[in-house]
């Protein structure tokens, strides 16, 4: 049963489908060619035979037209006999000569002499029509009857009747067809072999791809298939390899993200646990210490909330059908609003924020989201600038974009960290960031919001000198929307 199933599976595989299709095509072509050749050979040979028999009959007829009228003369009778006998041997056919009444004068087989021949062809010949017809006679097989009138001085005086076997011709054709069949069989074997090799070339890479896809379905994303060439299948292989590379990256990012999230959530949670436990296990705790501990727990809960809010923002931004709430907005006022909201933070560190508006600019944007980005970038500038520092926020534009430049005189970002600051959870100084309450998600959210507006964000920084962020937003980004 298993074997039958396996064989069935094999036979319906692409390889066998291709091989059987090729074989069927070749078989059909060969059958058509063979039957066409055999038919046209038959027609040609028979026609040739017919023509030659008619020609021979005409020759005999003209040669005998002189002797027939004198049949009662012995010499003439002998002559006719001799001519007929010789020709009968030459033509390998039976020749009969009849008089005008259809009575056989001479029969090369010496059987029917003196008897009347009753035959359609002869009847036609005796009224002046030369005819040739093919018959199948049970005893002799295929034969051709040819009858031609014998005339003398314009008068029909008798007929030549030839009966010739066609079996030789059919035997010949059969022989030739046999050779053709052998050749056809040979070409079928060769076709079978070539198509098998060809089918193998096509199906092997597909089988490899299938195997790789199956392994991927088990969660092993590091699959690569080795496919050379430049046809559709190898292109499919290349696309597959590209897809697995991408999937691997996505899977890695997902794992890192989950690990980071768990780590980030666990830190405040364990602080809360330690604080709560130490309160539970201590007896007679002063109210002051209680309050202090609860304040710490409260700030850890805040931190947890901030992380969760940021994560929800990120998930929100990644939604496929996310629609931005575009509104025509004066960017000047939006920046002003953000600066005002952050001023108390800056004041605490005695940091001065200068706002340089080079022009009044109005564009379409999602106010809430851009505000969220600006709060993070300007907030970072305040967070990472020591006391008494300065921050310069500048708004200007070129022909097709507006630029918001945020420069601080803060701690700067080491060169090797710059490429990663937009990554999720990336913080240059982790210990310090914890103190300042950073989650490392701000810039990642900012970058996504700006990208959704078809803009971009760039950074320049020097350690201990300061950092400058440039936010580019296209002037026409939202006009078409
Ligand atoms: N203006 C800046 N000066 C110096 N370092 C900066 C500045 N802005 C960002 N960074 C560095 O880039 C890191 C990533 O910034 P990001 O805003 O994503 O996170 P965060 O500020 O630490 O936390 P969050 O914004 O989520 O509260 C920061 O931790 C900091 O190390
Ligand atoms: Mg930040």
- Return the CATH architecture of the largest domain: 2-Layer Sandwich
Structural class of the secondary structure composition? alpha+beta
Count of individual domains:
3
Q: Describe the sheet with the most strands.
A: 5 strands, antiparallel
Q: Give Rg in angstroms.
A: 53 Å
Q: Which runs of at least 5 residues are low in confidence (pLDDT < 50)?
A: 477-481
- What proportion strand? 15-25%
Bound molecules: adenosine-5'-triphosphate, magnesium ion
Tell the overall outline: rod-shaped
Order of helices and strands: HHHEEHEEEHHHEHEEHEEHHEE
> What's the CATH first level of the largest domain?
Alpha Beta
CATH superfamily heading of the largest domain: PAS domain
Let me know the number of strands.
Answer: 12
Strand order of the largest sheet: 2-1-5-4-3
Query: Helix proportion of residues, in percent?
Result: 55-70%
| Separate helix tally | 11
Notable traits:
481 residues; alpha+beta; Beta-Lactamase; Helix Hairpins; Heat Shock Protein 90; 3 domains; five-stranded antiparallel β-sheet; five-stranded mixed β-sheet; 11 helices; 57% helix; disordered C terminus; binds adenosine-5'-triphosphate; binds magnesium ion; transferase; EC 2.7.13.3; ATP binding; transmembrane
